[in-house]
Amino acid sequence: MSLYKMRNFVxxxxxxxxxxxFGGLCSEAKAQSTDLVAADAKIQTIGxxxxxxxxxxxxxxxxxxFTDIPANKIYKLDQAGELSVFLEPSNxxxxxxxxxxxxxxxxxxxxxLIAIDLKTKEVTALADKYxxxxxxxxxxxxxxxxxxxxxxxxxxxxxxxxxQKELAVYYRDQEGKVSRxxxxxxxxxxxxxxxxxxxxxxxxxxxxxxxxxxxxxPGKLGTGKVFCTLAQPEGKxxxxxxxxxIDTNGNLYITSGTGVQVFDSAGKALTTLxxxxxxxxxxxxxxxxxxxxxTARTGVYALPTQATGHVFKGGAK
Length: 317
What we know:
317 residues; mainly beta; 5-stranded antiparallel β-sheet; 44% strand; globular; disordered N terminus
């Protein structure tokens, strides 16, 4: 995960605070005009009193879930804009993704990949060890069409010495077998598939080169290559990304020290979306899947888009 402070929110003009979301003020600010975001789109502040937000994910009913890692909670924002604590303690859950079978998959930074039943809140461990040792601190995940899960395991919040000597990406197949599929990156953090699931994108936090790998089969990857290179914050030279999401055209939205950097499917930089705080993760949700929700330090923000977010439909037993 990246540092807590961020400045430069360029092209944002704070407008009137309007109490429309939940239990607090929802301020609005102008967003950048691009083909992805309309000229009159405004960033809405969902809330700014959290500790460190992460892992936004939506279910089929339109509810949004996100984590507050230090507070040890998962929050739920329902369609009516009501905010509630969904799960506490969360064992410091980070990345989330809904599996379309009633389960919210989560990366517990306390060492496990889990599934949470949305009705009962029952927690089931999907993977807690590799080669006899616990994971370092699972961070982010993506579910493929077979129900398998790719998840990252860097060092953030991990015990020392590291239980797993490698900072890696793992794959847990539908039957529960876990394999290590990517090594050699500096703190692999965000992870996502392309809409056709032929490419796995991995976002390291401590290198500016973002990686992609051809998917040759569930959990079987070819040789990786640099997909794009992130623009760097002023005064820094080799900072990476954090979380990310993807739209139906394959454009990647990567959270970074300069904002949400957007790249097309070929790795060409399109724009950088600025938010009031440095973003940590993002996802599409809302009507038509056309709102970009961003978790950013102590805040959560929403930006209406012209782009449509891709929905991964991988189910699970």
